[in-house]
Amino acid sequence: MIIVKENGRARRRTVAETRQQPLQYRRIEKEIINLVKNAGDEGIIQRELWKKIGLDSRRGIKILRRLEQQGIISRTEIIYKGRKTYILKPASMMKAQIVIPEFLDDVPCMFCPNLSRCESGAQSIADCEILNKWIEEKKKRDDP
Fold first, then answer.
1. Which of 79, 74, 112 minimizes the C-alpha distance to 90?
2. Cα(29)–Cα(55) distance, rounded to whole angstroms?
3. I want to staple 117 with a disulfide (CB 3.0 to 4.6 A). Which of 6, 21, 82, 123 is the partner?
4. Cβ(137)–Cβ(129) under 8 Å?
5. Span 70-100, pLDDT tens digits
6. pTM, to two decimals
7. What domains does the chain contain, in order, with CATH numbers?
8. Are 101 and 61 in contact (CB under 8 A)?
């Protein structure tokens, strides 16, 4: 058990619970990105976004600010039904087409079921049997 501070209050959490929180935020980020992207140039009203994903604005605003700082979304202040809110639109970075080099299609990490363990630090990339096996096979293919 460890003590973490949430909303100004100390709470007891297991190590597993604290590792899952970033994964939950990434899932929410992906959901927000997809909704904003699907809304297109018209955008989506921030209040409507909260309703669609079932998230309170206090938690969601932190995620939106981070996405805005990264250049993924843009927020524009508007008055909607007599109240101040924001309209969210895809920023230029989201509209850009990202081309992934073909050689990355073969890297086993892209499809590995243990990827979240590597990201959280629970597993070392250097000790990954799947990745090491792939590297050895690639060396054999590339070196005649």
1. 74
2. 11
3. 123
4. no
5. 888 999 999 988 999 899 999 876 666 667 7
6. 0.51
7. 2-95 (1.10.10.10), 102-142 (no CATH)
8. no
